[in-house]
Amino acid sequence: MFRSLRFRLPALFLLGVVVSGLIASVIALRLFQSYVIDRSKKELRREAIGLTEVFVRQAINANNTGEFRAITKQLEQATGDELFYVGVPPVPGKNSGLTRLPQDTVDWRSGRTVTFEFVPPGKDETYLAVARPLRLEGKGPAFGDLIVATPKTELNQQLLPLLERLAIASLGGFLVAGLLGWYLSRRITRPVLALSAATDEISRGSYEVELDDVRGGGEIAHLESRFREMAARLSEAEQQERNFLMSVSHELRTPLTAIRGHVEALREGIVDDPGARAASLDMIASENARLERLVGDVLDLAKLEAHRFTLLEEEVDMGRLCDQAYAAFGEEARRRDIDYDKQFDTGPTIVTDGDRVLQIISNLLTNAFRWTPDGGRVQLGLVAENGRIAVAVDDSGPGVPPEEQERIFRPFWSRDDSGTGLGLTIANELAVALGGRIELDSEPGRGSRFELVLPSQRN
Fold it and tell me: What is the 3-class SS of 233-270, one letter each residue?
């Protein structure tokens, strides 16, 4: 439980609020304490100024010791502070009623008003005090200092109401923060937990997962959307893998069955006629070449995807190369009564890998003849303009729907679940490796146009 995201998120959120609240409370207390002390110093200084004047007048005019002590007690009661004295006795032979402090408590001879802290004799607490010089004349020498002091504990007691209010506010804030953290964690972790459960389903091989839409957008919604795409891609990849295994098994079994049948016939002497024997050997050679092409396609795709494919650089006459590719399908066009022609505006020479370019064009033509019905039309075009070479293959097949135009270049994907689905994939990967691309322009019902675009010079 304590390691779950549902617990850790609100816990971390609440911990952050608590730490922030404590830091803010400490700062507030320190600021308030500083404010109280500064205000108390100002009040003590103001009281010291008034009391020294009163004290000097009373010291001069007092007729007896009892009257002087009474005046001193009245001054203490009026201010609420304690009065101390340091220096020469203001009235020789008379008790002023003030507690006298040691001479080294403050430098009274300097004649300056001083703010300081001290512990009075017989006390065990610190006092905040202001020492004000006493003078019989306005600018005469000081004969002592009148010290107005107040215990610091009384100042600290002013912090108690603030502490109580801060404690109440903090508890309320922590409660609200806890509830908010719990609510937010539920909002955040619900889709995350759903994604986690969906991940477990996918790990068990079940890609048909259902996820509720995440409201409000954001990173979680983006993650959920990408997860859906990933699940769809994995499901499609698994389907492609199954199709590939079925297709390759079929493609391998068919020529192997033909080869085995002809070999057994030759071995058992069933075929005695020299012409029939030659036809059987030709069939074996043809099926063997078919197997080699299939294995070669799989190996080429693996090398292309692993970026371990070696390309040659040579001068290639594109006109002659396109003629070679065009001629290879002439017999099939005549046999199927397909209107097969070529249109070459130029015959440029470029630096590239001629065998791979021929492989790309042958794959595009193979795809065009596969989907073009008997009596249809296939055209091969060559154009050179704006520093690029374009080889186009047009057909009158059924066309490719928009939703399938990206899929047809994926490996092992076939629109009719026949064949290996590697021809267009290899052609596209080779085009990219050569620094070019394959563009598709197609609509259902009007055929397709695959165009190989290559730079006139390799970078």
Answer: HHHHHHHHHHHHHHHHHHHHHHHHHHHHHHHHHHHHCC
